[in-house]
Amino acid sequence: MNIKRKKICAFGIWLFFIFGAGTGLCRTEHEVHFENTEYELNIYKIYGAENGKTMMIIGGIQGDEPGGYLSADLYADMALRRGKLIVVPRANFFSIIEHKRAINRDMNRRFTPVNSKEFYEDKIVEILKGLIAKSDYLLNLHEGSGFFSEEWESDLKNPMRFGQSIIADADVYHSNEKGIELRLGDTAKKVADDVNKKIDNQLYHFRFNNHRTFEKDSSHPEQRKSATFYALSTHGIPAFGIETSKQIKDLETKVRLQSMVINAFMDEFGIIPESPKVALDTPRLKYLVVSLNGSQNIVAKDGDEIRVKKGERIRVSQIEANYERGLNVDILGAGTANDYQKEIEIQEPTKAIVRKDGFKCGEVYISVIKDEDNPGLVSELKNNYPGASKELSSKSPGIIYLILELNGSRQVLVNGEHIKTIRGDRMKLLDVIAEGINANGLTVNFLGFVGNKIKNTGEDRGYTINTAKDLWIKYSKGGNDLQYSIAINNADKRIGEIFVDIEEPRLNYLVVKHSQGGQRWYASGETIFITPNDVMEIVDIKTNINGNSGVKVHVTGDSGEMETRVITGYHLSKGNTGDKNEAGPAIIVSRDGMVMGKTAVQVGEPVAAKENN
Questions:
Q1: Shared-domain flag, residues 454 and 577
Q2: How confident is the model at residue 278 (pLDDT cuts 50, 70, 90)?
Q3: Which of 266, 296, 378, 455 could make an S-S bridge to 271, C-beta 3.0–4.6 Å?
Q4: What is the pLDDT of residue 173?
Q5: Mean pLDDT, rounded, for 549-559
Q6: Are residues 365 and 332 part of one domain?
Q7: What average pLDDT does the segment 169-196 reach?
Q8: Can you name the residues that pair with 419 across neighbouring β-strands?
Q9: How does DSSP assign 296-341, residue by residue?
Q10: Can you give the pLDDT at residue 611?
Q11: Which domain holds residue 599?
Q12: Does residue 523 register a pLDDT over 90?
């Protein structure tokens, strides 16, 4: 669900009346994707009064780099005289909340031409790709370890460090197809020179860091899946990674240095701003607005206590702090990492922790009282904020997202979406984000699965579902065991549905290293020929299963499970009786007892020492 808000700044209106309709209006468009989830994505499109180039700024793609996302955040409120900015301050909000580089996968390694959409990170990356396609330039803001230097000076200052550098994937990028030549190194060096003149501490000076990502001998091949490489190679736009050093401990200093580089790039590209101020006040909660059982509204300040009866429901509907963005609330022991705007049933005493990004800025205590006591706020602050008397939403009940885990990785799905699985995957239904109704009152039913086998209520949240063993085929679409549905019901009325597509696990090939030299790959059904003196090692198994989760490999008559396996021809020949009717040894690859593929092994003939890796 996307929500787009627009605002028109006064500067543009003033120009409109003076110069007439020929002059553009400066304005900001705000888009929200995955609203009120842990993965909420906010995008700010800032239009100048005069047309110009578009620069995109990404912050927070890795959640343990606050210098990046706090710097980007300063530009979300900017007014422009010329040009356009697309600002994504917190590309990976969940990882920021958790203060981790990644949750499922590193988001800055998911910018491949074809995206699997297997994880929530992939869905966000697809949105970012669309924004990159509309941009003329890209800046990706980071923090890097140590201090980059062209020469080795110390463990913290050498060519493999990233800090205090402006990174590009090439010095000069040529594309005959696009008809362009981009002198990225010259641009980065000019920006660095301009910025360094304003930095007294030479250790903090920026340097151009050429990752040579297109070269076969690049020291940074992992960058071929990064946002900057995607922007440059796919869309032919100049793209730079801006790295301040993690060794700079003062956060405001890091943000100031990042902002100096951003401003220099804007000047270089002709985007004329009103420079944002760099002022990082300590995050501070003013109050929460909390509804009790869908009606009573309570205002709770930092440190207040809310008293509820066991089983009552609360919902945090408003967070007031000295910042507007990057806020979330986590009700400990309930819900998810972001419980803002969610109905939460209270069963035991807990706390509502309010964070700005990953930093705690306040808390409200929630106590459980006896039935004869009066619930509410201990300090009796009730219904005393603007708009507290508004009626509850009259929207028709509907679901916005279903959140689930697939093999331990979280995914968020919209109504009607299909999720691809491989038979044997483990799935757990976690939560529903709904509108117009309390999500706790809904039933989330995986049709063809029974969670509570004593009393089947149809509620399947919280159960681990083995897609190989736990499903009733007769409830699959067409009875073919290949597609099931997850139904979200309000009483007896279905208000949402997600589809689970199941593919059979499949062995693509084995990669085998032979002691006689070389390594070869063998598809399922092929035969491996070895001599009694040969030793072979299975060095890789390629399947259609992500990470080979649950995959086992063993030789006929054996039952071992190993990532790699050493097999001797002598051992196999000893087990062969010579009976022509007896099946020979084979390497069997399976998952949950299902055979995915089999490669026969014949002992006696020499193996060809040929490499095809």
A1: no
A2: low
A3: 266
A4: 96
A5: 73
A6: yes
A7: 94
A8: 500
A9: EEEEEETT-EEEEETT-EEEEEEEEES-SSSEEEEETTSS-S--TT
A10: 39
A11: 507-603
A12: no
CB 235 within 8 A of CB 173: no
The answer, yes or no, to whether residue 13 has pLDDT greater than 70, is no
* Residues 521, 493 share a domain: no
For the record, the structure tokens of 335 come out as: 């819900």
Helix axes 251-268, 66-73, angle to 10 degrees: 50
Instruction: Answer yes or no: do 90 and 209 share one domain.
Output: yes
- Maximum pairwise Cα distance, the chain: 99
Neighbours of 124 (CB within 10 A): 23
- In angstroms, the CA 417 to CA 128 distance is 20
Residue 610 counted as domain residue: no
Element (DSSP H or E) covering residue 252: helix 251-268
pLDDT of residue 378: 55
Whole-number Cα distances in Å, 590 to 410, 480, 505, 545, 559: 25, 22, 8, 11, 11
pLDDT tens profile 200-213: 999 999 999 999 99
Give DSSP secondary structure letters for 51-71.
Answer: EEEEEEEE--SSTT-HHHHHH
> Any idea what DSSP says for residue 283?
P
C-alpha 77/C-alpha 147 separation (Å) is 31
Query: Which CATH number does the domain housing residue 82 bear?
Result: 3.40.630.10
565's tokens: 């396996």
Same domain, yes or no: 517 and 417: no
> Each residue of 305-346: pLDDT tens digit?
999 999 999 999 889 888 888 899 999 888 888 899 898 999
| Helix (H) or strand (E) run with residue 233 in it | helix 227-235
DSSP string, 415-465: TT-EEEEETT-EEEEEEEEEESS-GGGSEEEETT--S-SSS--S--BT-EE
The reply to whether 144 and 259 lie within a common domain is yes
Cβ–Cβ under 8 Å, residues 571 and 601? no
In this prediction, residue 350 carries a pLDDT of 92
In a domain, 170, yes or no: yes
The pLDDT tens digits for 69-104 are 999 999 998 888 899 999 999 999 999 988 899 999
Confidence check: pLDDT of 129 > 90:
yes
Residue 108 neighbours by CB distance under 10 Å: 26
pTM score, whole prediction = 0.65
| Nearest residue to 502 via CA among 482, 486, 485 | 482
pLDDT at 274: 64
**Comparing C-alpha atoms, which of 294, 290, 280, 364 is closest to residue 322?**
280
**Domains held by the chain: number:** 4
Q: Is residue 182 part of a domain?
A: yes
Q: State the CB neighbour count (10 A cutoff) for residue 603.
A: 21
Single residue among 503, 536, 561 that ends a domain in this structure: 503
The tokens of 461 are what?
């949240």
Can you tell me whether residue 248 is helix, strand or coil? coil
- Same domain, residue pair 25 and 163: yes
Together in a domain, 258 and 123: yes
Domain boundary among 452, 470, 503: 503
